[in-house]
Structures are given as C-alpha cells and as structure tokens.
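STRUCTURE:
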C-alpha cells in the first residue's frame, strides 16, 4: 500500500510540475504590424522632409567646396604662398565641415526616427500584451526576424492585435 501511495504521489508531483512549465507561445510579425499603423505615414512624411533639409544643407556645403576649389585652381599661380596656404586651409576646413555635417545628419535622422516611432511602437506593444493576456499566451515571438522554422497559423496573433488596436482586418500579402 505504501508503494502505491508513493507512486501516486510521485505521479501527482510530475503532473503538477509539467503543467507549471507548459507555456502557450504565439507569434506575429511586429514590423508588419507597425508598418500597417496609420501613424506611420506621418512619420514617413516627417522623415522625408527632414532628410530633404539635410540633403539641401549638405549640397550647399559641397557646392561651396567646389566653388572654392575652382577659384583655387584658377588663381593659385598668381597668389603669394601665404594666400595660397590660407585658401588651402579654408578648403580643408570646409571638407571637414562637410564630413561633420554628414555624420550629424545621420545621427539627427536616427534620433528623430526613434522619437517619432516610440509612441507607435508603444501602442503596438500594448496591443500585443493585451491579446497575449486575453489568449493566455506566456510568450509572443516576433516572426519578422524569420528564424522560426515552423509556426502554427492558429498561433499567429497579428490579426487579433490588428483588431485590438483598431487596424481592422488586412488580408495576407
């Protein structure tokens, strides 16, 4: 009898432990979700505008360099060594400014994009969290990295999250 009781107790413990570790896992393409949100259009317009502003500033700097180079080449033979040295330094400084502008532009564009995307990503994550909790999912994997070997379409949370955050139904691409 003791042996039967120990076996039953062991069986109950194994069931309890295995049910504790059972996890329901869902997935969705998070990038697709964010790209389908209507707010993303405003971000794209803003980023295009910022990009054009930076391109214009950089273009003007490069045109200034070209003008100074043309002036240098046209007059170098007539200048004194001191003037020649000043003109060369001016061109070198402008090239450094152009490089600095390129780097600053990239950093600014990245910072602005992050700032503009932050509330959109937050809204998407909140939608995912709500759907995951409602569906009893303990984990949601982002399938946009394309590392999943197999996924059950029933565990794709993208349609549910779209509905939860008000995007409506979008047909598969």
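SEQUENCE:
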């Amino acid at each position: 009898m003791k042996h039967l009781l120990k076996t039953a107790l062991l069986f109950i413990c194994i069931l309890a432990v295995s049910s504790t570790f059972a996890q329901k896992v869902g997935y969705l393409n998070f990038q697709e979700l964010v790209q389908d949100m209507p707010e993303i259009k405003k971000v794209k317009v803003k980023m295009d505008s910022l990009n054009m502003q930076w391109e214009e500033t950089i273009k003007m700097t490069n045109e200034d360099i070209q003008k100074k180079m043309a002036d240098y080449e046209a007059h170098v033979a007539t200048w004194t060594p001191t003037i020649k040295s000043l003109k060369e330094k001016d061109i070198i400084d402008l090239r450094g400014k152009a490089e600095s502008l390129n780097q600053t532009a990239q950093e600014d564009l990245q910072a602005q994009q992050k700032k503009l995307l932050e509330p959109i990503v937050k809204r998407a994550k909140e939608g995912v969290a709500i759907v995951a909790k409602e569906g009893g999912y303990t984990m949601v994997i982002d399938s946009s990295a394309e590392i999943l070997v197999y996924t059950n379409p029933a565990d794709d949370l993208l349609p549910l999250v779209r509905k939860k955050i008000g995007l409506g139904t979008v047909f598969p691409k």
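REMARK: The CA atoms of residues 58 and 73 lie 23 Å apart.
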